[in-house]
Amino acid sequence: MKPVTRIRTVGADPTQDPAVREAGLKIKAGEVVALPTETVYGLAADATNADAVARIFEVKNRPQDNPLIVHLADADEIETYCETPGEAFDLLSKAFWPGPLTLVLKAKPLLKETVCRGLDTVAVRIPNHPVARAVIREAGVPLAAPSANLSGRPSPTRAKHVYNDLRGRLELILDGGECEVGIESTVLDLSEGKPVILRPGRITRTAMEAVLQTPVTYLNKTEQERRSPGTRYRHYAPKSPLYLVHSSLEPETFTELVRFLKGRVVGPIGYIGSRIQPGEDKRIKVIAYKATEIDRFAHDLYANLRDLERYRVEAILVDGFRESSQTESILDRLKRAANRQLSDEADLQRFMEQFED
Ligand code: TXA
Ligand code: MG
Predict the structure, then answer these.
(1) Does the CB atom of residue 182 touch ligand 1 within 6 A?
(2) What pairing do the DSSP bridges indicate for beta strands 242-245 and 340-342?
(3) For position 239, what pLDDT does the model report?
(4) CA 182, CA 301: separation in Å to the nearest integer?
(5) 20 to 30 Å CA-CA from 82: which of 31, 69, 115, 341?
(6) How confident is the model at residue 18, as a pLDDT?
(7) Sign of CA dihedral 328, 334, 338, 343
(8) CB of 187 closer than 6 A to ligand 1?
(9) Ligand 2 centroid to 41 CA: how many Å?
């Protein structure tokens, strides 16, 4: 029988909250529970319990070879699970924990059979969301927690997103409101000497370089897929095709693109950006952002994609931001979600030739 899924709101003091107590008991008993973190909602279970970890994969339909991040309450516990981390680890953990940074380190045996999925490294992070922290303490175990979406869907940043994806697949979702950051943590690999970014996030490359006083780089695509299995799969796909409009696209080319799409799709079109004003065009559902509103854009991104789906838009146009250290993470997610990127007139011509309806 399918479990009945309940959403329980957590009050002002999570450490004394009965919903948090229930979550802790469930996790100790080997069950999975969804909870808020400062980045996105996570689907948490006891990282030391192989059956509980297997349940996570089942509930979100996750590919078996994709490893999970382990969430701890304190950096002191790291040495139980990871080989001696070193100086870069000390500097970064002091600067950014608790917070939206995940560090990949050489794994000790303890979690190899649960979260590592065949890798000899383990990804760890100390979240700073009070509900996540209270649940880790209450459960008394490290929490394995991927984003609490069905595999392939945008990550959830509100409890109702989790409910929409996972209703009937788990018993308890803790509601701690909207996630502050809105996109997943930065993943930085420290396991092979030089620090490399496997996934950009709110903690930027330049911020980490300032702390480490050494360059932080990205891997090429082949190395990236070897060292970060999650990037092999298509992510964050909304149900309608998403077209990413580069900030360099000329206004006239953009107008031509909109005119073309309106002639090819029958239903409404979604637009996120500042080139069209709300109410300007009845067929276009506009969600307005200025080019300076980077944090607000990230905070709302996945919620906006899910909202546009509910409007049954047939295509989504999103204005990209100019590339900078601060926008790297947003552009990364948009590029993964996009069916197509358009940066100039030649792209538009090709797009129009190849378009099928
Ligand atoms: O913000 C976040 O990180 C959220 C919250 C819930 O903490 N979690 C999250 O987990 O985004 P998930 O599973 O959706 O994404 C984790 C990413 C995946 O791309 C996975 O492949 C990668 O981290 N990863 C996990 N362990 C790894 C390891 N040992 N080496 C390389 N990549 C790893
Ligand atoms: Mg995920």
Answers:
(1) no
(2) parallel
(3) 85
(4) 7
(5) 31
(6) 98
(7) negative
(8) yes
(9) 10
What tokens were used for 28?
């100790």
Q: Sheet holding 315-319: strands in order across? A: 284-288, 269-273, 315-319, 242-245, 340-342
Closest CA to 139 of 70, 75, 186, 84: 70
Q: How far is the CA of 155 from the centre of ligand 2 (A)?
A: 6
Which residue's entry shows tokens 């009070």?
130
- pLDDT recorded at residue 221: 80
CA distance 64 to 79: 26
327 CB neighbour count, 10 Å cutoff: 20
Atom of ligand 1 nearest to the CA of 127: 7
Would you give the end-to-end CA distance of the chain in angstroms?
41
The per-residue pLDDT for 234 is 65
Distance (angstroms) between ligand 1 centre and the Cα of 89 equals: 18
**Which parts of the chain register pLDDT below 70?**
233-235, 357
In contact, 168 and 184? CB cutoff 8 Å? no
User: Ligand 1 within 6 A of 186 CB?
Assistant: no
